[in-house]
Design goal:
Low-confidence stretches: none
Strand content: 35-45%
Number of strands: 6
Number of helices: 2
Shape: globular
Number of domains: 1
Helix content: 10-25%
Oligomer: single chain
Radius of gyration: 14 Å
Length: about 140
């Protein structure tokens, strides 16, 4: 069962359609870790052009989904409410399997370092327990 639905996610992060890319948050330890889900549908706008007749989830959008999961984690801290988490960097990105419409991504993020308003997270996206994408990313928490 989700601990945050889409409406509740929008209370934490500023993303909106068509760029709110997570559907629910299942687990949340503010400032520590979060697990979210994205249910991929053939109707998701990016599948029309990536690639016609053979749709595949763009890896960079999966990284954005991981970053949005991290943003929920960081911005759920009381001292960060109302702020925005901006990308500061992406490292060690690996794309291990194709992800297709009809699959559900489980997006797990754990913060591995925090210094002031800079947070480094480790993210892993899986489908049915199989690793699809992994990366480390830096977020800068701003006003």
């Amino acid at each position: 069962m989700a601990c945050l639905n889409r409406e509740q996610i929008m209370e934490v992060i500023p993303h909106r359609d068509p760029f709110l890319l997570i559907d629910e948050v299942e687990e949340l330890e503010p400032g520590v870790r979060a697990v979210a889900k994205k249910h991929l549908s053939e109707d998701d706008y990016w599948f029309k052009g990536h690639f016609p007749g053979a749709p595949v989830q763009p890896g960079v959008l999966t990284i954005e989904m991981l970053a949005q999961t991290g943003a929920v984690c960081a911005l759920s801290l009381e001292e960060n409410k109302g702020k925005t988490a901006f990308f500061g960097g992406i490292d060690k990105a690996k794309f291990r399997r194709m992800v297709k419409p009809g699959e559900t991504l489980t997006l797990s993020v754990e913060f591995i370092k925090t210094r002031g308003n800079v947070v480094v997270g480790k993210g892993v996206a899986t489908v049915d327990g199989e690793k699809a994408v992994s990366c480390e990313f830096t977020c800068i928490i701003g006003g």
